[in-house]
Amino acid sequence: MALFKSLDNLDDNTNGASKEWPEGDAEKVKCLIIGSGPAGYTAAIYAARANLSPVMYEGMQPGGQLTTTTEVDNFPGYPSGVTGPEMMEDLKKQATRFGTDVRWGMATKVDLSKRPFKVAIDDKTLVEAETLVIATGATAKYLGLESEEKYKGGGVSACATCDGFFYKGKKVAVVGGGDTAAEEATYLANMAEKVYLIVRKDYMRASKAMQRRVDNTKNIEVLYEHNTKEIYGENGVVTGVKLIKRKGEADETEVDVKIDGFFLAIGHTPNSKVFADFLTTDKEGYIVTDPGSSKTNIPGVFACGDVQDKIYRQAITAAGSGCQAALDAERFLGEQE
Ligand code: NDP
Q1: Is 323 a catalytic residue?
Q2: How many CB atoms sit inside 10 A of residue 320's CB?
Q3: Catalytic residue among 11, 159, 304, 309
Q4: Which pTM was predicted?
Q5: Which of 172, 264, 293, 315, by CA, is between 20 and 30 Å from 300?
Q6: Has 159 been annotated as catalytic?
């Protein structure tokens, strides 16, 4: 049931801190794509069709987080839904059909100070790219509980838009106090019977407008100063959560809430670290792109998908931005000639 669209678990994908460059001659490519979620594959399809002979390195989790999901019902063009792995396999086939060279490997070191851009793959292979498309995604943060791992796919999810549909008339909990948590809680409240919003402080960090939406939604109950102790269930499916209510250091009460779904909304980490010495990022590490384009602060380097989008984070928006990145790369190369 877990339909995370973000490229979760790619956190180590791009975070290598290699000191040395691989020895030997560099392979020269026109368009190098790093990351293989919906953004990366869409960039590959467009770049290949534009004769850029793209080379893609898939990263830690080929196909991205969609490959760990079951049904995807909100991607246009699949009237009966499609499984995440099938969709990513289809995207890969489509990218290779037009000549994308899809390879296993991760970017471990980059030099974007001049063109061609130098990228080390797995510390072993050196690639020199005329254009670079970064599609490394973001990693949803989890609380780090064992029970969270146990029920992933059985009621624990980091994406309400993906999985909310399964909770029509049911009870769910959302953990987090930011804009995402507020948004996910109100989204879920449209279909679930009851939404518990678990906030660890005695206030929410979300914008006032978002908080008003939460407060005005009758079937959301905000549990301030509550922390998640453990998620429990039966036959691999979530049936409840144990919380700790804190009223100061010494005063703790255990609270048991019966739920069918548990949603994480405690933030994401963009997989941008390996590029961060060269690219402008915001304070959370998201790569900054020019509004309405995939252009970064370095001409010839383009970013698409969740690594530069902290707001929408959907497969379809990632795919759209992947298309932009390929078109931007094509135009950039055209201008250089
Ligand atoms: P934030 O980092 O803003 O908020 C994370 C929330 O999760 C905080 O309330 C934090 O609590 C809580 N949290 C973190 N770790 C834990 C933990 N271990 N246990 C319990 N709670 C925890 O992340 P968001 O994803 O909400 O937002 C990221 C950015 O994206 C923000 O800038 C936001 O404004 C933006 N955004 C904008 C939207 C829009 O404009 N429509 C929609 C969604 C996001 P605490 O406050 O105690 O630190």
Answers
A1: no
A2: 17
A3: 159
A4: 0.79
A5: 315
A6: yes
